[in-house]
Design goal:
Chain B: It is found in: Cell membrane. Chain B: InterPro entries: MetI-like, MetI-like_sf. Chain B: Keywords: Cell membrane, Membrane, Transmembrane, Transmembrane helix, Transport. The complex is a heterodimer. By secondary structure, chain A is mostly helical. Chain A has twelve helices and no strands. By secondary structure, chain B is mainly α. Chain B is 78% helix and 1% strand. In chain B, strands 1-2 form a two-stranded antiparallel sheet. In chain B, helix 4 runs parallel beside helix 8, helix 5 packs antiparallel against helix 8 and helix 10 runs antiparallel to helix 13. The radius of gyration of chain B is 27 Å and the shape is globular. Classes of the chains: A mainly alpha, B mainly alpha.
């Protein structure tokens, strides 16, 4: 669009302000992790690295991190399988209720997390518990997988739409059976979409707190739950600050991976 | 070594490929079986585990809790819903939650539109990728970390207070802080779909509009807006729904503010009234279902 100079500068200014709005709070947390003052008075009176050392020695945080990783891997595994299956069905077949199925996949993230959480909680309490299956890590994985399916589904569906079915037909014409076509043609085409979906699913699960609160059994503490339960304890504030700073810095890793995986600039989004 | 690799392809694979081939040929002829094989597991999960849980939730909303024993009475009654409709507290909280969700959505749309437009149409193509990365990165920084960042910023004597001239002079925690922080949290969910929509809009259309004599405002209304609206609606599903159910941010920066999420949380935890919590949870479900059905025609769901 032919924009006037002033319009361009206005838009540039809006972009800069928006980015400042996004990054200032995050940088404050980073700076504060070196703030020697326990209450984080601003501006910081002195600097220290003591909190980093203390956070590194915190067993609760480490344990919670491990639980989060287990839950994330479990949920990602289930989401990869179910999401791909639905994507294939929706892309390759025209069937009654196809629209409903795609809406059903979106529903768990379209409805507020507290609804998904309380629904699963109610189901576990009134249906699963009498059957002898209590809440634990398993129920967390069930809860997370339910809303992770959609990210794998979206990534795989987009890739299937773009690649079409020509390669598969060519493969069949050349005499390959269904398994060979999948192994040598379909899967390689999908690989990076699957990885991107897995990355997003893991990220969603790793960050989730509301559904986790309602589905975690006693003693199952993921990292967000650990952070939240320590958030209002004044003497834990410095450690929380360092954990927060680490999570901010660590968020560069999935972004880097997602950028390498996705072929379009916006391919890594939900 | 050499002999074994020579041996295997000839004998091994044909023996193995026979049944595989027959199965794949049979599957090729039976599309219905293939479809069933694809859909059984996901539908089992989504219908049984998810919709089933939702159904249990709605059924338990019709139950009550015995005031003396604290045990759930499994007898269907509309008492919970009657309380929600007649008691003013719940109406106020429901309206406040919808107001917060709508406010967050409007703020995010207003911030996201110019940013997404700049990214898609003004920035140089080689800068675009980096701008997308800059918008995506905070999505990976944990939700709690971002809410916590604002707790630090808005704290008594924190940076915002300091900016306004000393402890207690900033806005502090409260309803305003809740809206601000929710808008901050969900902003990328609004920018990204709008950017994706605008990226698909060919520049030639904008040029054609200008060639035909339209000014920027007219071009925006006639060419950009029709493309942007489904994207904004797609983004609004996230900003609206995520705000509607939130109770964590409210606890972190909301002061004494109560939203639907908090009431559900309190009733399921401290009050131990699961049926009433379930009845309260049907409010956001109803609102979101009405919203999803209303926007389905706009094609927004394809943009998610």
């Amino acid at each position: 669009m032919t924009l006037s100079r002033s319009a361009r500068w206005l838009l540039r200014g809006a972009m800069a302000l928006g980015l400042a709005f996004i990054y200032l709070p995050l940088s404050i947390v980073l700076v504060n992790s070196f703030n020697a003052d326990r209450t984080f008075a601003w501006p910081p009176p002195r600097w220290t690295t003591e909190w980093w050392v203390r956070a590194g020695e915190n067993a609760g945080a480490r344990e919670a991190l491990w639980t989060s990783v287990q839950a994330g891997l479990g949920a990602t595994g289930v989401a990869l399988l179910l999401g791909s299956l639905v994507a294939f069905a929706v892309q390759r077949y025209r069937f009654f209720g196809r629209e409903t199925v795609s809406l059903l996949v979106v529903l768990p993230i379209a409805l507020p997390g507290i609804v998904t959480g309380i629904a699963l909680d109610t189901a576990f309490r009134s249906v699963m518990a009498p059957l002898g299956v209590g809440k634990g890590l398993f129920s967390v994985i069930v809860g997370h997988a339910t809303f992770c399916v959609v990210v794998v589904y979206n990534n795989v569906l987009a890739r299937l739409r773009r690649s079409g079915g020509n390669l598969q037909e060519a493969s069949a014409d050349l005499g390959a059976d269904g398994w060979q076509t999948f192994r040598y043609v379909t899967f390689p085409v999908l690989r990076s979409a699957l990885l991107a979906g897995a990355l997003l699913a893991f990220g969603l699960s790793f960050d989730e707190i509301i559904v986790t609160t309602f589905t975690a059994g006693p003693g199952v503490q993921t990292l967000p739950i650990w952070i939240f339960s320590n958030l209002f304890r004044p003497n834990q504030a410095p450690v929380i600050n360092v954990v927060a700073a680490v999570l901010i810095v660590a968020s560069v890793v999935p972004i880097y991976l997602a950028q390498r995986l996705s072929d379009t600039a916006s391919g890594g989004r939900l | 070594m050499a002999t074994s690799t020579l041996d295997r392809p000839a004998g091994g694979t044909t023996a193995l490929r026979g049944p595989v081939r027959r199965l794949s040929a049979w599957l090729h002829r039976h599309a219905g079986v293939r479809l069933a094989a694809l859909l059984t597991a996901p539908l089992f999960w989504l219908v049984i585990a998810y919709l089933g849980s939702l159904a249990v939730l709605f059924v338990s909303a019709l139950w009550t809790v015995n005031g003396f024993t604290g045990e759930v009475v499994r007898q269907p009654t509309l008492d919970n819903f009657r309380t929600i409709v007649t008691d003013e507290v719940y109406r106020t909280v429901a309206l406040r939650s919808v107001g917060v969700a709508a406010g967050v959505t409007v703020i995010d749309t207003l911030i996201a539109l110019p940013m997404a437009f700049y990214m898609a149409k003004v920035a140089k193509p080689r800068h675009r990728r980096w701008l997308v990365v800059a918008i995506l990165t905070p999505l990976w920084a944990s939700y709690l970390v971002k809410a916590y960042a604002w707790r630090v910023l808005l704290a008594n004597g924190g940076p915002v207070d300091w900016l306004f001239g000393g402890p207690g002079s900033g806005p502090g925690y409260g309803l305003g802080a809740t809206v601000l922080v929710l808008a901050y949290l969900w902003l990328p969910y609004m920018i990204l779909p709008i950017y994706a929509g605008l990226e698909r809009l060919p520049d030639s259309l904008l040029e054609a509009s200008a060639d035909l004599g339209a000014r920027a405002g007219r071009t925006f209304r006639a060419v950009v807006l029709p493309v942007v609206v489904p994207s904004v609606i797609a983004g609004s599903i996230f900003t609206f729904s995520l705000s509607l159910g939130d109770y964590i941010t409210v606890q972190i920066v909301g002061g004494k503010t109560q939203l639907i999420g908090n009431l559900v949380y309190v009733n399921i935890g401290a009050a131990n009234n699961l049926p009433f919590a379930a009845a309260l949870a049907t409010i956001p479900v109803l609102i979101m279902v009405v919203y999803l059905v209303a926007v389905r025609r706009s094609g927004a769901l394809e943009e998610l």
